[in-house]
């Protein structure tokens, strides 16, 4: 099965000078420059893999992404991720 991969805030890592071709080869890949909470469910509600840089992963945002199995942080540090919350998911691979 081909995974749905969504980069929620790609502009923070890639203002347009980096190719995402390798990610496209891994599944159905979509990159958004920025995503706010109102857009999240529409953009990532179907995604199994989420890529974030500064976008927060917490109870409010994770609830809008019920299929997520893997979170990639495209940054140094992971202070935007509620680690205790994601470890408590039913099938964590975080």
Per-chain topology:
Blueprint: E1 4-7, H1 21-26, E2 28-31, H2 37-44, E3 49-52, H3 59-62, E4 70-73, H4 83-87
Parallel strand pairs: 1-2, 1-3, 3-4
How would you describe this structure to a colleague?
By secondary structure, the protein is α/β, with parallel strands linked by helices. The chain has a single domain, classed as 3-Layer(aba) Sandwich (Rossmann fold), CATH 3.40.50.720. Helix content is 24%, strand content 17%. The chain is built from 4 helices and 4 strands, in the order βαβαβαβα. The chain has a 4-stranded parallel sheet. The longest helix has 8 residues. It is globular, with a radius of gyration of 12 Å. It starts with a strand and ends in a 7-residue tail after the last helix. The model has no long low-confidence stretch (mean pLDDT 90).
Short description:
This protein has about 90 residues and is α/β, with parallel strands linked by helices. Helices cover about 25% and strands about 15% of the residues.
Key features?
17% strand, Rossmann fold, alpha/beta, single chain, 4 helices, 24% helix
Count of individual helical segments: 4
The proportion of strand residues reads 15-25%
**Domain tally:** 1
Q: Could you give the distance between the termini?
A: 20 Å
Structural class of the secondary elements?
A: alpha/beta
Q: Provide the helix percentage.
A: 10-25%
Going by CATH, what is the homologous superfamily? NAD(P)-binding Rossmann-like Domain
H and E string:
EHEHEHEH
> What's the overall average pLDDT, rounded?
90
- Low-confidence residue ranges: none
CA radius of gyration is 12 Å
Largest sheet: 4 strands, parallel
DSSP strand count: 4
User: What is the third-level CATH name, the topology?
Assistant: Rossmann fold
Give the overall shape, derived from the CA principal axes. globular
Do you know the CATH architecture? 3-Layer(aba) Sandwich
Order of the strands making up the biggest sheet: 2-1-3-4
What's the CATH class, please? Alpha Beta
